[in-house]
Amino acid sequence: MASFDHRVIQRLFGLNGSMAEPSSEGRPGPFWATRFRDRARCRVRSPGAGTEGWAWSERVAPYGVPDVRVEHHHLGAGSDEGASRCKARGWGMVISGSARLEMAYGSLGDHRHDMLEAGDVWSVPADAEASFHAHGPSGASLIAFIGGRETQDNALGEPWGREDSYGHKGALRHGLLSQEAERTGWGSIRVVEADVFSDPDALSAAFVEIMPDCRTDLHWHLNTAVWQICIEGTGLLTQLASGHRGEVTRLAPGMVCHVPRGEGYHLRNDGETTLTVLEIFRSDHYHDLSLPQWLAAASPEAIAAHLCVDVGTIARLSRAG
Predict the structure, then answer these.
(1) pLDDT by residue for the chain (321 residues), tens digit each?
(2) At what angle do helices 300-307 and 311-320 cross, to 10 degrees?
(3) Using CB atoms within 10 A of its CB, is residue 21 exposed (0-12), middle (13-18) or buried (19+)?
(4) Are 88 and 122 in contact (CB under 8 A)?
(5) CA–CA separation, 281 and 285 (whole Å)
(6) Beta strands of 107-255 (E only): which ranges?
(7) Which among 207, 209, 214 has a CA at the least distance from the CA of 269?
(8) CA–CA separation, 129 vs 125, rounded Å?
(9) Separation of CA 312 from chain center
(10) Are 215 and 268 in contact (CB under 8 A)?
């Protein structure tokens, strides 16, 4: 059974385990759904100077994580060579426009190239030299996550039996927005994992779209931390750290957020347009566990004992999910 801090869950359930009004998915929701809106219990962080918009070009060791950097490049289509090209590193996504990826690797200097459009993602092997060149009249805007995978130290972090021997014969890019989305009650999600790339150290990611006035389920990623980049729209990221009150961060385009491994969170769209968030995971695969999934997978008695709440509360939550 997954391990959760019972203090967090008890705060979400409330002392009496009462139920709330229907959720944005159109069915009854548990009491925790309304507690996210209680600002007396949550500390709300608004974007500060330099955090909103796409003006930033580089974030070094964000949130105190020393081996991570996040880069944003806007490549113009003019004749200025410095503005029309940049070095390609790590894992990333083309936000708008199009760019040509050129890569050289190996002792013989073998070359490969590919054209990336908006919504395409890439992964450049650490032993390769690569660069992006703007293509077309509108140039390109792209973001890169550099940092590699986290050290896996738990059972859920073990690879799923994949061999790290892709060589350089696989794909340089993947059309993330071209793949079919998984539809949900709150929006949609597209997931890409490491095995679509030639890079043996590629990461996984999720492209999340949330409809106005909707929220995702409370969920956990137990194998790795989550790095989030808000692409479009506005909303709220609510994090529930063990033993602490909830922390809410206002999201705006260009913001970079971080949820530590195993920390529960949910995303809510409080704007009038779709909230789009790119979630990057420092793992070869995507793994999540939502509260409804957990309630459905275990007996009420087992969950009640684990969370230190009464069986009746768990039974009501299971029926509501």
Answers:
(1) 444 555 555 555 543 333 333 334 333 343 333 333 343 345 555 554 345 588 899 999 999 999 999 999 999 876 554 579 999 999 999 999 999 999 997 766 678 899 999 999 999 998 899 999 999 888 999 999 999 998 754 434 444 333 433 344 568 899 999 999 999 999 999 999 999 998 999 999 999 999 999 999 989 998 999 999 999 999 999 998 765 567 999 999 999 999 999 898 999 999 999 999 999 999 999 999 887 887 788 787 887 776 677 788 767 666 555
(2) 120
(3) exposed
(4) yes
(5) 8
(6) 110-117, 120-123, 129-146, 173-175, 182-183, 187-192, 204-210, 219-220, 226-232, 235-240, 246-251
(7) 214
(8) 8
(9) 34
(10) yes
Q: Are 145 and 91 in contact (CB under 8 A)?
A: yes
Contacts of 286 (CB under 8 A, 6+ apart): 191, 193, 204, 205, 206
All structural domains of the chain: 6-35+293-320 (no CATH), 43-287 (2.60.120.10)
**For residues 2 and 222, is the Cβ–Cβ distance under 8 A?**
yes
- Measured CA to CA, the distance from residue 160 to residue 318 in angstroms comes to 30
Task: For residues 136 and 283, give the distance between their C-alpha atoms in angstroms, rounded to a whole number.
Answer: 34
